[in-house]
Write a structure and sequence with these properties.
- It comes from Adhaeribacter soli.
- This is CYTH domain-containing protein.
- Keywords: Membrane, Signal, Transmembrane, Transmembrane helix.
- It is a single chain.
- With 315 residues, the chain is α+β, with helices and mostly antiparallel strands.
- The protein has one domain: Hypothetical Protein Pfu-838710-001.
- It has seven helices and nine strands; from the N terminus they run αβαβαβββαβββαβαα.
- An eight-stranded antiparallel beta barrel has the order 1-5-4-3-2-6-7-8.
- β6 and β7 form a beta hairpin.
- The longest helix has 33 residues.
- The chain is globular, with a radius of gyration of 24 Å.
Length: 315
């Protein structure tokens, strides 16, 4: 289980940010095109690639439980079209995000995280590198877990590289180099836990789309918030099927947005989490200020009392 690493970072734009994002996406597009043109060609070892299409909406924390219950009932078996079924799975997730001192991943809207899943089925760990392709569409490279400690020349205590098998590290290096990022410079910058309830809509027994309530928790400062997520995951080979799934996701998102009067979240999870972690609520700030003032007044009163008492004893 990953250790807790905590930092305070600010989300800020820099000149040329969008140019770097565009250049990075262009390199990934060209790489994908070249890999298709040269078929048959084996994928780089150590990871799988998935394409997700997703809507994310911020949900007021006090309303989250009631909203989820309404969604669960709305998309249960009696209310679904013919051929569709649904089921719900719950799990706890711990994410450890990596970045460098210049916040290169944050600025290019990329995400690199170690994700620990804990559910009734057990535990599993994944290293995920997420690259935005287009609006609401993200390409995710999922690396296999390094189950055995490396020995000899392959040993490393680097917090990121030790999570990868030695033979898979060049694959991650190759992906990061396209965005002018060095794996050696990446360190843990943010740890987030969240409780996820995910409702799977299945068509003819196969996963079609999913709706999730994700309740996030961060520390220093302590912050809690909830998101509603509507998503489809597919491997790139299933593009034809994904068009139908995208239509379903669009329809569900429009319906739920209207039902709960939701505002879409357009930044990446990493950017949103970093920003939320840095923004203390006014009530929290006032509480800290009041506590500090009370402490100072109490200390001043204590020293004044001691001084007066000593003078009294002398007389």
């Amino acid at each position: 289980m990953p250790q807790s690493y905590k930092t305070n970072r600010r989300v800020s734009g820099v000149p040329g940010r969008w140019f770097r994002v565009a250049a990075c996406l262009l390199l990934f597009t060209l790489s994908a095109y070249n890999s298709q043109a040269a078929k048959p060609k084996k994928a780089l070892p150590g990871y799988q690639v998935f394409t997700s299409y997703e809507y994310r909406f911020r949900l007021p924390q006090p309303e989250a439980a009631a909203a989820w219950e309404k969604i669960r009932l709305r998309y249960s078996a009696p209310n679904l079209p013919s051929g569709f079924t649904s089921d719900v799975k719950e799990q706890n997730i711990i994410d450890l995000y990596f970045d460098d001192e210049k916040q290169a991943l944050l600025e290019q809207e990329l995400m690199l995280r170690h994700r620990l899943f804990i559910s009734g089925e057990g535990r599993k760990e994944r290293l995920q590198f997420l690259v935005p392709e287009a609006e609401r569409t993200t390409q995710t490279f999922i690396f296999r877990q390094n189950r055995k400690p490396d020995k000899g020349a392959n040993f490393t205590d680097h917090p990121l590289l030790k999570l990868l098998r030695a033979k898979d590290r060049p694959a991650l290096d190759s992906l990061l180099r396209k965005c002018d990022i060095s794996a050696q410079n990446l360190q843990p910058v943010l740890e987030v836990t969240h409780r996820e309830k995910r409702l799977y809509l299945r068509r003819q027994g196969n996963e079609w789309v999913s709706i999730a309530l994700a309740q996030y928790s961060t520390e220093a400062p302590e912050h809690h918030f909830a998101e509603l997520q509507i998503r489809v995951n597919q491997q790139p080979a299933n593009k034809a099927q994904m068009q139908g799934q995208k239509f379903t996701v669009d329809t569900l998102a429009a319906s739920l947005q209207k039902l709960f009067n939701l505002q879409p979240e357009t930044s990446t999870e990493y950017a949103a989490l970093t920003k939320n972690r840095e923004q203390e609520s006014p009530s929290f700030t006032r509480t800290k200020a009041l506590a500090g003032t009370t402490l100072l007044v109490g200390m001043a009163a204590y020293f004044i009392f001691r001084k007066l008492r000593k003078k009294k004893e002398k007389h």
